Amino acid sequence: MLYYLFDYLHKNFNVPGAGVFQYITFRSALAIILSLSVSTIFGKKIITFLRNQQVGETVRELGLAGQTQKAGTPTMGGLIIIMATLIPVVLLSKLDNIYIILLIVTTLWMGTIGFIDDYIKIFKKDKQGLKGIFKVIGQVGLGLIVGSVLYFHPGVTIREKSTISNVAKTEIRTTTIEEKSTATTIPFFKNNELDYAEILAWTGEGYEKWAWLVFIPIVIFIITAVSNGANLTDGIDGLAAGTSAISVLALGIFTFVSGNIILSNYLNVMYIPNSGEMTVFIAAFVGALVGFLWYNSYPATVFMGDTGSLTIGGIIAVLAISVRKEMLIPLLCGIFLVENFSVVLQVGYFKYTKKRFGEGRRIFLMSPLHHHYQKKGYHESKIVTRFWIVGILLAILSIVTLKLQ
Fold first, then answer.
1. Cα(58)–Cα(78) distance, rounded to whole angstroms?
2. Are 275 and 259 in contact (CB under 8 A)?
3. Rounded to an integer, what distance in angstroms lies between the CA atom of residue 191 and that of residue 211?
4. What sign results for the dihedral spanned by CA atoms 135, 74, 282, 278?
5. Global pTM?
6. Cis link prior to 299 (omega < 30° from 0)?
7. Sign of the CA dihedral with 370 first, then 373, 374, and 375 last
8. CB-side exposure of 394: number of CA atoms within 13 Å?
9. 218 contacts 182 by C-beta, under 8 angstroms
10. Are 257 and 264 in contact (CB under 8 A)?
11. How far apart are CA 208 and CA 378, in angstroms?
12. Each residue of 308-363: pLDDT tens digit?
């Protein structure tokens, strides 16, 4: 809203300083300051409200140190993250930008699913919360929306370079063409672009028009996997919020570069018109996550609940897909991946050994992985700090791929 106000003042009245709102960097800086302020200042009021409403966490007895002290801690704190993200976005971003619209829809969609899950756990006294099948249906529904919009919307394009030679005048000209494409980038490889449509090349001529049959299911899978990974990571104070902030900050660098024609040309990366506006959303999101950490760091005075964790995972997935960096998710979101795999391996191995030997055996003392280290006697603050360090390392390695191609 403020963007349109200052744009109007700049163009019609030439108000001094109003033109600065045209710059993504300026609006991103304002967004992170505003979101950080909202999450820290109003976060306390929301926590007090949740506590007064007795919206407390019901802790399952898992035999973990310090577990009983967490009982009754207010949950649904993801509302703080959602509010602190959306307020700066609505005020400072271009609301007619298709990427911003998609991210707002993602935030509200996943936030609603998580809120329903938390509501059932707290007020209906059902520890299982929303049934898994309904969560998956919600995630698949979002995947269908995001995949369809990214594939069919005319505003979602990439800019291709084409070289035109003129032998008579001995000159070479390079032109750029904006076109619809299902191309994405593969890290660490030269000429690192993969077009999902090529998967259907074996079907013969005209296969490109059926690319959505490949692209949309891939989007659904990524959104479901990343949102569940974030949900599993949210097990100890500050872990999910901290690691997510690191990953999102790295995605912000990719987004700014991919949306800037000069930087993308210099670094020889795919230029995605209009995608740079997502930098404002990312700045607001990072500020909200860091502000939430003020209250969620050990010992936490609020938990994000599924309201926050599912929303975080959904946003990260949509950001990565929109900026054509979904192939980097296993590296950039390596913490989520390992947490996911630890559960899959634990459950799979337990079922296999029970069937073969008549007794279920475990790979880890407990899954997800952070609980394994808790069982080994590590304090949760040490676990979280070390996971953050690993997350920073993975983010740096991901950013390095801008030049390793």
1. 16
2. yes
3. 21
4. positive
5. 0.93
6. yes
7. positive
8. 24
9. no
10. yes
11. 53
12. 999 999 999 999 999 999 999 999 999 999 999 999 999 999 999 999 999 999 99
Largest pairwise CA distance in the chain: 82
**What pairing do the DSSP bridges indicate for beta strands 171-179 and 158-166?**
antiparallel
C-alpha distances (whole Å) from 260 to each of 19, 22, 114, 257, 335 are 19, 14, 34, 5, 29
Q: Whose structure tokens read 């790979």? A: 363
- Taking the alpha carbons at both ends of the chain, their separation in whole angstroms is 39
| Tokens encoding 365 | 């003392």
Contact assessment for residue 300 and residue 384, using Cβ atoms and an 8 Å cutoff: no
The gap from C-alpha 279 to its chain's centroid, in whole angstroms, comes to: 13
What tokens does 152 get?
């069919």
Token duo for residue 106? 């993602």
User: Is 163's pLDDT higher than 50?
Assistant: no
Q: Angle, to 10 degrees, between the axis of helix 24-52 and the axis of helix 78-92?
A: 150
| pLDDT tens for each residue of 173-197 | 555 678 899 999 988 776 678 899 9
The CA distance from 321 to 315, in Å, is: 10
- The torsion of the CA quartet 26, 30, 32, 37, rounded to 10 degrees, works out to 170
Per-residue pLDDT at 159 exceeds 70: yes
CB 196 within 8 A of CB 212: no
Neighbours of 355 (CB within 10 A): 9
How confident is the model over 187-229, as pLDDT tens digits? 877 667 889 999 999 888 888 889 999 999 999 999 999 999 9
Position 64 pLDDT exceeds 80: no
pLDDT at 65: 62
Are 91 and 34 a contacting pair, CB within 8 Å?
yes
Alpha carbons 376 and 363: distance in angstroms, whole number: 13
- Contact (Cβ atoms closer than 8 angstroms) between residue 311 and residue 82: yes
